[in-house]
Amino acid sequence: MENNPNLPQDLLEDNILTRLPYKSLVRFKSVCKYWYALFNDPIFLSHHLSNFIKNHNTSHNVLLRLSFPTIFGDGFENYKLFSLSATTSNDDYSAVQTLMPKFNMLSTKFQICGHSNGILCLSIEYWPRSKEVILYNPATREYRYLPDSTMRFRASSLALAVGMGYDPFTDDFKVIRIWRGDRNGNGVGVFRTNCVEEYSLSTDSWTMWNNSNAEHFLFDVDCFATCYKRTYYWWAFDREDKSSIILALSMEDEVFERVPLPHDIDISDPDGRSLAVWNDSISLICCTNHVWTTSIDIWVVDGSGAEGSWTRMLSIKDLADEPKPLLFWKGNKLLMEMSCRKIKSYDVEEQKFEDVMINGHPVWHSSQAVNYVASTVTLKSGNYLI
After folding, report:
1. What is the SS3 assignment for the chain?
2. CA gyration radius for the chain?
3. How many other C-beta atoms lie within 10 A of the C-beta of residue 379?
4. Which superkingdom does the taxonomy of this entry point to (predicted)?
5. Biggest distance spanned by C-alpha atoms of the chain
6. Disulfide-capable partner of 362 in 8, 66, 113, 194 (CB 3.0 to 4.6 Å)?
7. 84, 62 in Cβ contact below 8 A?
């Protein structure tokens, strides 16, 4: 294998093996020792991921979190993760339950806190311990528990939100966590502020941001929206008038910046809004409830971060079921959770709905979704689901 006289080694590796589907790489690891080592080499895996993203539409697959009722009543829902693929040829799609690592706590409630290049970030709901944040590669079933925070808070402190992104400049996965920190003042009792820390996969450690302006805003649990082009987007509140706002946080600095909103829109309802990537731009999806129907407006920003202007691209009128917008997939299809407890895909060009088939009846307002691309990126953790 290593000295094939008929095929140059660089041609075999660069032009053939790096273009194989990730499932083939997993299978071919057992061909020989050289291929096993090659398919675990970080440089090879980086080239493989670059080729995959270049030659595939990475918005065609979705990971979907849903909650289902149990016999124990409210507050004891069973959270599950599903994969939704675009390979179905007819107008209906089936969501298939996906394996996920177990949290150390007994609760099954978890949040999807971002996805990038095949790596999924999960955190347990309402639990501030850092060991309950997990990075997970569903394709290889490798997972990694994040280490404990280096910050020291009082027991009443709470980790409000977690967000994850990938920095192509440093080839590193980053996790941002915002704390509502209760700390001892200089002899004047306890004061409450927002604190921010950043995790780096390359160093497997947390770093506290000392100059963050997070204290100027109010954050709620599950306020992370998305990460796109090295910028994190967050839902927040103005500290003075408590109005809902959008914040942008660039990977290059530690400063939250307000994103100007389109004129005269309401983003106060968490279930009636979504920030999603559509046609290589950040889009804002807003629902407006009328007397008997609901409409959806979709805005696209020209620019990124806190700069740029919004343009309303289209409106979806007269929806009988109240929707919760999730994200775009398959190009121009908007995935939504409907008040009838069904997941539907709406084609904005053909203006028609398609059903997503799910076994059971999910709890209303329990859905989260991220666009997903499978990859062989390794977390170097040694932990795998069997």
Report:
1. CCCCCCCCHHHHHHHHHHHCCHHHHHHHCCCCHHHHHHCCCHHHHHHHHHHHHHHCCCCCCEEEEEEECCCCCCCCCEEEEEEECCCCCCCCEEEEECCCCCCCCCCCCEEEEEEECCEEEEEECCCCCHHHEEEEECCCCEEEECCCCCCCCCCCCEEEEEEEEEECCCCEEEEEEEEEEEEECCCCCEEEEEEEEEEECCCCEEEECCCCCHHHEECCCCCEEEEECCEEEEEEEECCCCCEEEEEEECCCCCEEECCCCCCCCCCCHHHEEEEEECCEEEEEEEEECCCCEEEEEEEEECCCCCCEEEEEEEEEEECCCEEEEEEECCCEEEEEECCCCEEEEECCCCEEEEEECCCCCCCCCCEEEECCCCCCCCCCCEECC
2. 22
3. 19
4. Eukaryota
5. 78
6. 66
7. yes
| Tens-level pLDDT at each residue, the chain (386 residues) | 444 555 566 666 666 777 776 667 767 777 888 877 877 776 776 676 666 655 554 456 899 999 988 877 666 778 899 998 765 455 568 888 888 888 776 667 889 999 998 899 999 865 555 558 999 998 888 999 999 887 776 767 778 889 999 998 888 999 999 988 766 555 555 556 788 999 999 999 999 988 788 888 999 888 999 999 899 999 999 988 889 999 999 998 889 999 999 888 889 999 999 999 998 899 999 998 888 889 999 999 887 777 778 999 999 998 888 899 999 998 899 999 998 888 999 999 888 898 888 888 888 888 999 998 888 788 988 888 86
Q: What is the token pair recorded at 9?
A: 């080694």
Measured between alpha carbons, how far is 261 from 132 in angstroms, rounded to an integer?
Answer: 34
